[in-house]
Amino acid sequence: MNLKLVASLLASSAIGLASTHAFAQVAGAQPLGVSVQVSTAIIDGWSVRKSILNKPVVNDQGARVGVIHDIIVAPDRSVSFAIISANQFLGVSHHDVAIPVEQLDFKNGKLVLAGATKDAIKALPEFQYTKMKATPAPRADFQHH
């Protein structure tokens, strides 16, 4: 399964969650701010937390090259980068790098980064989070809205 599907699912979920329409409750379904169709798509989808975060990343030969620590969602709601730790000891990462999600794939139930090695990932510039504001900016503040 390609991570482009992840981007599509997250984007469609974000669009549905941003909807302000009220929906009547239907017996057996509680849409929670989204349509029944969107709720069904969410249920049929899969969880990034359960399926990707803290999961190992391997190369084409099956050698472990890192662990997924985070998924970056761009202001346009697209999934853009996976943050991979190339060096982890007792759950503490020492060198996180940003990898475009297009470079990752699922093969035989594993996250694969083709052509990667631990040394190649360690050689990439370290990813550091910017200091976040205490409150995220409203969507209206972005130019594309």
UniProtKB/TrEMBL annotation:
Q: Does the keyword Repressor apply?
A: no
Q: Please indicate if the UniProt record lists Disulfide bond as a keyword.
A: no
SUPFAM superfamilies from the entry?
PRC-barrel domain (SSF50346)
Signal sequence, start to end: 1-24
Assigned keywords, A-Z: Signal
Q: Where is the PRC-barrel domain?
A: 51-113
A Pfam family of this chain: PRC
The protein's superkingdom reads Bacteria
Recorded protein name is: PRC-barrel domain-containing protein
